[in-house]
Specification:
Elements: H1 9-19, H2 25-40, H3 51-64, H4 70-83, H5 89-100, H6 109-122, H7 127-141, H8 149-162, H9 168-184, H10 187-201, H11 206-222, H12 226-242, H13 244-247, H14 251-261, H15 267-283, H16 285-288, H17 292-302, H18 320-324, H19 328-343, H20 354-368, H21 374-390, H22 397-418, H23 436-439, H24 456-477, H25 481-495, H26 505-515, H27 519-539, H28 548-559, H29 564-582, H30 589-607, H31 613-629, H32 636-651, H33 656-668, H34 679-692, H35 698-715, H36 721-736, H37 740-753, H38 759-773, H39 782-805, H40 808-811, H41 814-826, H42 830-842, H43 848-865, H44 876-882, H45 888-904, H46 906-919, H47 924-940, H48 953-963, H49 966-975, H50 987-1007, H51 1009-1022, H52 1025-1040, H53 1053-1066, H54 1073-1089, H55 1098-1108, E1 1116-1121, E2 1124-1129, H56 1132-1147, H57 1167-1177, H58 1182-1198, H59 1200-1204, H60 1207-1218, H61 1228-1254, H62 1267-1282, H63 1284-1291
Antiparallel strand pairs: 1-2
Length: about 1300
């Protein structure tokens, strides 16, 4: 649009309006075009223009709708879209009156209908606008519905846009009018009316919805006309798509009528019925489960329905078991005959629509298969599988594709229902993506379940020969590309299931070779070979070995393809093939030859300068596979050449990143030894990797550092001294950057290389190490740093390090104590320094910090030395003496040190600790002894896996030693008198002791669940408040352990815990507030780690949690703070925990019930009540407001319909939050809290709107309109998103 329009819009519009009356249609068209440009330009404001000018625009545009030129008419309709957003309500009413006044018989009715729909879809949505449109249009549209498709289309748009503005009376009137159309309307009008009813159904109140269902059921019973039955069936399917949750309960009444409609001899009606059943099965699988037999029968009947074509009866294999036993000769003859018919003299009848029924039946079976439970799946498997295979020879391409696709779904479900999953992929495969998706579906062919005749795998194996033969013929004869792709999909799925190949597979391989002639099929063929190779490498497929050379030939041919995606994918598949071939290459010359061919092609592609980068990268990975997996197939010269190629690729900037990863894989391979590489090559690689640490690319530096660590750990002796010095200097610079990600590998490399550098450089390392000790470092860097200190101490720097580390502040940190202990032990300073340290403990002048530091160091010395002569290093009397110290921090540190020492020497120290605990159950010493016992159970009870995946032998030994004392520890802990004033001088100290005792008890229960968990359950039910508190803490501790922790190392842990879950959840009503808070927080842990425990009690647990989210007036007290009174809510912590637990349950919903096989209905989540509590939470404490927002977003994701009824309240609450205006003197903390809450509200708004637009997969909620919500989105949320608040939210971390 010319820029001059923006200067004076009125001046620009006047001549355009005059030209609209020109006799020349070109002038009229160009004027409308320019007018549309002005109206659509939001920067041009018409606010200052006179009302008469706007009215003249309206008159001109509406007059143009009746222009005799079609292009002018269409452009006039286009102008209405931006125009209606600029007019007032009076002018809008004028437009509606003039457009709706056209009689149904007028010739321009269709154009006016289009204009009305354009206005409805573009007018700003406000409450007043919605009411005006409904009032002015509804009474005009309803009388004309029976004779006008245009009126129905306008009604659909009106209901979609302003359905929430309809009153209940108007909804009922509209429903009755649409039902009248079904009764007396014409064909096309009736079909459009079905869509209108679907739009209206989302706004039907419950009584009208029930009336609609009653109308359908009664009409089905009384209808005899196929045409009317078809409309009723279409209505059922449309209602299901519009609101499956509401229609689902009525399907037992409606579905039989739809099945009965299939018996009527009318193909259009049958097609509609099959489509409706497909919708029911997909959207309401639980309600349709009772009709599985009827669905299978209908699909089986109509998938063969072809009245105009007489096929051989032998072609249809009715009896699954008998048909699979047909001789090869018979099958060959049948197949040849059917394929000759299909692709030779095809039957053709333009009026034949029976193929639509066959296609609908195939889709119906494909939709049903994934919804079947394992028992039903096995029941119907034989008949459905045989039936689908018999229809592979379908003459219609579209039907054949659906049949083959349905069989692919069947094979996929066979893997899901009958195959045990594997979780760990083979790490030796250098693949660019994980192959878990394929390996997870692979089964051991010797599985005992396969011996059963009813096992789907057995049936599929018997059928596979005929399937492969039919697939081969399709690939060779059919001209249809989609059919061939579907055939390759089926073949790929079969390779994930079959344990052995039939002899007919030999005919399938040539078909693969022939398919490579079509570019569009090459990726599918390569994917098939990849699946076959991965499956064979993981578990072996009997009979595949003889075909591998041909498959390799196909892959290598594809590697030379001119399209880089095909070539790169082929080289990627070569990785899987190398693993498969390498296993048997020594005994098979053919396999060895295949490896040579792969190696030759991979090297050629990796070194080619004109090859696409992706192809070169995959070629490099293929070479690495040869070097690591097929080392014996390469000669020394070939291996050297490959090594040189890798180094060359490392120096090349374009391939540097992938070369780094390739070199890391080579060095990590167990088959690679020091003798495989020359010292010069290793030195060059190490030097190049070290030099890359000076680059600016962070990702490149991290990759180089990780690979350098692997090289140095395995081949440090092969690296030259000069390169070692260079590397150490570079790494010292890396340490100075204080990059936590680089810290751990850098320290590990330095620990290996430091002994080979001079004293000066070692001193620099000492300085860097000491600096790191005084700083906060990541947990992964602690061990490497201690290793570096160990090496430096052994190199003669122990005294220097000790003098600099022996500082009060450093000794009080855990890292400082560990570092000093390593220096003392590794540097041989024990004899000199340990007595001096002990003397500090007994000194009356020593400060508390000095004593604490010494105790921590002594404990770490014992930890470093382990069992080797450290039992007498720290006498137990020395530590007990500290228990009488007046300073509590000294006593606690002494207790922790006692625990560290006792954990390494259980038999010497633990009996003494238990003896004193029994003698003094209510003293201050008892609390300290509990702390010491906690340290013991932490170390001895932790059954951690080492790097090889086995249990740590030392910890297992200590756990065994601790087990002998476990019963006595158990009894002693429950015998403690926590109510003693001497034991718990303050309430918070008492709670702390109970928490520590609970952790000890929990760890003991994990060590011996069969013995202790039943005792926990009995104490949970019968114990007093103190005992319940300890048990609750223990159980909460157990539930809070993630599944990757030691809990999963205990066999049948879930079985031991499940019996106490019910009694534990009952304590959600415990009268003791502290106990109730602990139980509430434990529910969140259960939802995260043991969601199956909630399967049978979910509804009850949620009700109890909801009760704990309600503020209790009796828990709110008033506290006097100086001249002010302040309210304290003692129930706030419980409410916060309850909201957190409810949110955790919402997150875990999809996993609840998995272990037991119990399907938890979404109704058990009580989403309506959840939203209600979340709405109240938006008025509560700040933390509860944030969690409430998270809950609302999750509810919208689970079921958007629950949110719809609360949109008004949400719009009001969110508007209040996003429009908060803080005062100038607001403190920083309040500003941050407000910002966090506003960002969370914005994120929740997006989540809710996304769910509404997506409609939870129904395609129906995008049209849901709530005036208040739309106003909030446009006026408040849009402004916030465009402002600074949203920008700040983009950088904020997620909760």
């Amino acid at each position: 649009m010319p820029s001059s329009y923006a200067v004076g819009s009125t001046v620009a519009i006047q001549p355009l309006l005059e030209k609209l009356s020109s006799e020349d249609s070109d002038y009229r068209f160009m004027s409308l075009s320019d007018l549309h440009g002005i109206l659509a330009n939001k920067t041009v404001s018409l606010a200052n223009d006179s009302v008469s000018t706007i009215n003249r625009i309206i008159d001109g545009v509406l007059k143009s709708l009746s222009d005799n030129n079609a292009e002018v008419q269409n452009l006039a309709v286009k102008c209405l879209a931006p125009l209606v957003s600029r007019v007032n309500e009076t002018q809008l009413a004028n437009i509606l009156n003039r457009l709706s006044a056209v009689a149904p018989s007028d010739s321009d009715r269709s154009l006016n209908s289009t204009a009305l729909r354009t206005i409805i879809s573009n007018v700003p949505a406000t409450a007043s606008t919605g009411k005006m449109f409904v009032a002015r249009l509804l009474h005009t549209l309803l009388p004309n519905l029976r004779n006008s498709t245009e009126s129905v289309e306008v009604l659909v748009e009106l209901v979609n846009r302003f359905g929430s503005s309809l009153t209940e009376a108007q909804i009922e009137e509209t429903q009755n009018a649409l039902i009248g159309v079904f009764e007396t309307g014409k064909g096309l009008v009736r079909k459009r009316a079905v869509s209108a009813l679907g739009a209206l159904s989302r706004h039907l109140p419950t009584p009208l919805w029930e009336n609609m269902v009653l109308y359908l059921t009664s009409s089905f019973a009384s209808s005899a006309s196929p045409d009317r039955l078809r409309i009723l069936v279409l209505v059922c399917g449309t209602l299901c798509r519009a609101d499956r949750a509401r229609l689902g309960p009525y399907l037992p009444k409606l579905a039989p009528s739809v099945f009965k409609a299939l018996e009527v001899d009318d193909d259009d009606l049958r097609e509609a019925a099959l489509s409706a059943l497909d919708t029911f099965v997909v959207l309401c699988p639980l309600q349709m489960a009772q009709f599985n037999e009827e669905v299978v029968a209908a699909g089986s009947k109509f998938i063969k329905y072809d009245p105009n074509y007489a096929a051989d009866e032998d072609e249809e294999m009715v009896d699954g078991d008998d048909a699979s036993d047909l001789s090869d000769e018979d099958n060959e003859d049948d197949d040849a005959g059917s394929f000759d018919d299909d692709y030779g003299d095809e039957f053709s009848d333009d009026d034949d629509v029976s193929w639509k029924l066959r296609r609908g039946a195939a889709k119906l079976l494909a939709s049903l298969i994934p919804t079947l439970d394992p028992e039903a799946f096995a029941k119907f498997y034989g008949s459905v599988a045989q039936l689908l295979v018999s229809r592979f020879s379908e003459r219609e391409d579209t039907v054949r594709i659906e049949v083959i696709s349905a069989f692919a779904v069947l094979v996929s479900q066979t893997a899901r229902y009958t195959l045990p999953r594997t979780s760990s992929p083979n790490p030796s495969l250098p693949l660019k993506r994980s192959i878990d998706d394929v390996e997870d579906m692979i089964v051991d062919g010797n599985d005992s379940s396969a011996e059963s005749g009813g096992d789907p795998r057995v049936r599929l194996t018997k059928l596979s020969g005929r399937v492969f033969k039919l697939l081969a013929r399709h690939l060779q004869k059919t001209p249809n590309l989609s059919t061939k792709q579907a055939c390759l999909t089926v073949a790929t799925e079969l390779m994930t299931v079959l344990a052995s190949l039939p002899t007919e597979f030999g005919a399938f391989v040539p078909a693969l070779e022939q398919s490579m002639a079509q570019t569009a099929l090459r990726m599918d063929v390569i994917k098939f070979i990849e699946t076959a190779a991965v499956a064979h490498g993981a578990r072996g497929i009997d009979g595949l070995e003889e075909y591998l050379p041909k498959l390799v030939s196909i892959v290598l041919t594809a590697a030379d393809d001119k399209f880089y995606k095909i070539a790169s994918e082929a080289l990627f598949v070569a990785n899987a093939l190398v693993k498969t071939l390498a296993l048997e290459s020594s005994s098979s010359p053919a396999f060895a030859q295949c490896l040579d061919q792969i190696h030759e092609v991979a090297v050629q592609k990796a070194t080619g300068s004109e090859i696409d980068l992706v192809v070169r990268e995959n070629a490099i990975l293929s070479v690495v596979s040869m070097m690591t997996l097929a080392r014996g197939s390469l000669s020394a010269s070939e291996f050297a050449t490959d090594s040189a190629m890798l180094f060359d690729r490392l120096k090349n900037e374009t391939t540097r990143q992938v070369a780094i990863g390739a070199i890391e894989k080579v060095f990590e391979a167990p088959s690679i030894t020091v003798a495989d590489f020359s010292e010069e090559w290793v030195t060059n690689v190490a030097g190049e990797l070290a030099s890359l640490l000076r680059k600016a690319d962070r990702e490149l530096r991290m990759s180089a550092l990780t690979t350098l660590k692997v090289v140095i750990e395995k081949f440090a002796a092969s690296v030259s001294t000069e390169t070692v010095v260079l590397t150490v200097n570079i790494l010292l610079g890396v340490l100075m950057e204080e990059n936590l990600q680089f810290l751990a590998p850098s320290l590990a490399i330095l620990a290996t290389l430091v002994p080979r550098v001079d004293v000066g450089l070692q001193t620099e390392n000492c300085n860097s190490a000491i600096e790191l000790v005084s700083k906060q470092i990541s947990a992964s860097a602690v061990k490497p740093l201690l290793s570096l200190l160990d090496v430096l101490s052994k190199c003669g720097h122990a005294k220097t390090l000790f003098s600099r580390l022996n500082q009060g502040e450093l000794m009080l940190t855990v890292m400082g104590a560990k570092a000093l202990a390593v220096v003392i032990v590794s540097g041989g300073l024990e004899a000199e320094q340990v007595p001096r340290l002990k003397s500090v403990i007994g000194s009356p002048d020593a400060s508390a910090d000095s004593v604490r530091g010494v105790l921590m160091v002594l404990g770490e010395i014992v930890a470093v030395k382990g069992d080797s002569g450290s039992a007498d290093l720290v006498p137990i009397d020395l530590l007990f003496g500290c228990f009488s110290d007046q300073r509590d921090e000294v006593r606690v540190t002494a207790a922790q040190t006692l625990g560290v020492v006792a954990a390494r020497h259980v038999s010497e120290f633990l009996p003494v600790i238990l003896e004193r605990l029994v003698l003094e159950p209510g003293s201050v010493t008892a609390r300290l002894l509990v702390i010491a016992l906690n340290e013991v159970t932490v170390f001895c009870g932790a059954m951690n896996e080492d790097e090889s995946g086995a249990l740590s032998s030392r910890n297992a030994e200590k756990a065994s030693a601790l087990a002998a004392y476990a019963p006595k520890i158990w009894t002693s802990l429950f015998s403690l008198d926590l109510g003693s004033s001497e034991t718990a001088s303050a309430a918070n100290e008492k709670d702390s002791v109970k928490t520590v005792i609970g952790e000890c008890v929990g760890r003991l229960a994990l060590m011996s669940p069969k013995k202790f968990i039943p005792d926990l359950q009995s104490r949970l039910v019968n114990g007093d408040a103190q005992t319940r508190s300890i048990v609750i803490s223990a159980v909460r501790f157990i539930f809070s352990q993630p599944k990757s922790s030691s809990v999963e190392l205990v066999p049948k842990m879930s079985e031991y815990l499940r019996p106490l879950v019910g009694d534990f959840f009952a304590l959600l009503e415990d009268p003791d507030l502290d106990n109730r808070r602990l139980v509430v927080t434990a529910v969140a842990a259960v939802a995260r780690n043991y969601p199956s425990f909630l399967a049978t009690t979910l509804a009850h647990v949620l009700e109890l949690l909801f009760a704990n989210t309600v503020p209790q007036e009796g828990l709110i007290r008033e506290v006097q703070m100086g001249p002010f009174k302040h309210k304290v809510d003692d129930g706030l912590d419980v409410r916060k925990a309850a909201y957190d637990s409810i949110y955790a349950i919402l997150l875990a919903y999809t996993e609840i019930g998995d272990d037991l096989g119990t399907k938890v209905a979404k109704d058990d989540l009580k989403l309506d009540k959840t939203v209600e509590r979340a709405m109240d939470g938006l008025k509560d404490d700040h933390d509860i407001k944030v969690v409430s927002c998270l809950m609302l977003g999750r509810v919208a994701h689970l079921d958007y319909r629950v949110i719809i009824s609360h949109l008004d309240d949400l719009a009001k609450a969110f508007t209040a939050t996003l429009t908060i205006k803080l005062k100038d003197n607001t403190i920083k903390q309040e500003i941050e809290k407000t910002g966090e809450l506003q960002r969370r509200v914005a994120a929740t708004t997006r989540a809710i709107q996304t769910a509404l637009d997506a409609g939870d997969g129904d395609g129906g909620s995008g049209s849901v309109l709530n005036v208040a919500w739309e106003k909030y989105l446009k006026e408040v949320f849009a402004g916030f998103s465009a402002g600074a608040g949203e920008q700040a939210g983009a950088s904020a971390g997620r909760r």
